[in-house]
Amino acid sequence: MRQSARLHQALPGAVVSLALAAAACSEAPPPAGDADAPFRVGATIDVGAAPHGIRFSPDGDTAWVALSGEGRIAVVDLSESAVVARWEAGDAPLDLVRVEGGWLVSQFRDSTLIRLDEEGRIVPGAVWGVGAGPSLFTPGTVRGETWITTEFSDRLWTVDTREGTPRAFHATGDRPYPADVMWDGSHAFVPNLEAGSVSVIDLLNGELDATVEGCPGPPGGALTPDQVTYIVACGGSDEVAFINTASFAITGRVSEGIGPRPFSVVVPGNGRHALVNNAGGNTVSVVDLESRAVVQRLEVGEQPIVLRAHPDGERVFVANEVSGTLVELAPAAPAPESAAPSGGETALNEVVVLGVIHSGHETSEMFSLEVVRDLVREIDPDYWLTEIPPNRWDRAWAEFEATGTVEEPRVRRFPEYMEGLFPLSRELEFEVIPTAGWTEPMSDFRAAYLDAYSRDPDRAEGWAEYRAAAEASSEALAAGAADDPRWIHTDAYDEAYDIRMRTYARLFDAELGPGGWEAINASHLAYIEDGLDRHRGEGVRFLLTYGAGHKGPFLRELRKRDDIVLLDVGPFLDRIAAAR
Hints:
There is one protein chain. It is built from eleven helices and 33 strands. By secondary structure, the protein is an alpha+beta fold. The strands form eight sheets. A five-stranded parallel β-sheet has the order 31-30-32-29-33, sandwiched between helices. A four-stranded antiparallel β-sheet has the order 1-28-27-26, with no helix packed on it. Helix 1 (about 370-380) packs across helix 11 (about 570-580).
């Protein structure tokens, strides 16, 4: 039995002030059910005094650990569980990040970033003052940028990893701790320890989007891989809170099973679990993100202070400040392989890519909303992949279930969902998988950029070239009857649309970043492919609905998959025409 239109949830750094002593706190025993515990404690490696930030080689065989208590970087061979080198790294190094030609290291006491070369030697004169208390860099980089907070100067710095230099800063709340940044670089989430808040900074437009109150003493947090939720450790109340990344509302809390002074959060792999270190003791709590409950507590060493996910997507490493150790947390057992259907053959899934025309459906006679509804009925999908951002679907569906209407602004703009998906959810059985990579800051940045470009005399030639391509594309689309669904679902339509978008991508994509044509399609497709991957081999049918211009890029990639069969829209149109 299929489940009626519910969300398929694609579930997918931090530092304490050196003067802060670890609290002596007793902790409750781990919860029951350890036989099914998701993680186990693996290797324990003595690395040196007061380890903090951890970085890994791309192959995951080597770790570099900042030893703030001895002014060095420990180079660790993870296959041998041994320190193989120690680099001098200035005064109280808390973290390091890879940059072109070497490393940047944060100097907590000196209020600086310093440069090391590839061999770990300090580069003379390569020193940048960034304000008091630079702590941990963000876990990852986005298009050659990373970020670091300065705890006592209330700043979030953008660091250019290609140049290896800090570039600009944003104001934060009081005593910011390590931030996390969304995959597209649109938002930074910054926990402010002293302010008891999380600053949400629109990095693309240089604005403060929101200040989220209600989390006492937050020292760290992490985004889930699907970017729907920011999980923040509330060190002052021994709990974690979940913040929706679109509404910036707190959507839940977990306290039972969280130990004293939760500090850092990491969400490895497929996003099923969040790990939270309890810096006031010696444990890490494992939170199941579907049930939002602690399912395991692991003893790791005294004052676990920083968590980092390993590149393999499965393991997590913990730096224990007082114990001076690096501890591996590994999956307790391999993930079970999904059983193949009887007969030993994997069933292929079917995918129908339906290009829609959004508001055009409200005026078109050939591709009206009635036609859209009839097509969906005829297709009868098991899963509906939608042009709705994952972080906005929960609110939209909750509103519809409660009142029969939807106020969520991004979802409301799509008549094919307002007049199609929602009413049809009461008639058909399908599961909704939201897959749009759109964010509001990205959209605002793109609109402002294109407006400025169009009015810039120095770019008049480029703008004229784009306008000519757009006109040629419109003429080619009109030649085939732009609102005819049979025309829309042809390769010729995709080629006509590409006339405009190839020029658009060449002229604008580099500066638009996540709002560029190729980048946004890649973002959408990542969510789409994740949904397909999660149901591989089930022999089910997917309906994918996006603006018709996205259809060509999606089809080019989907045709490369060997686990799906792409179904043409034409036969479904034939059936609804015959029924009328």
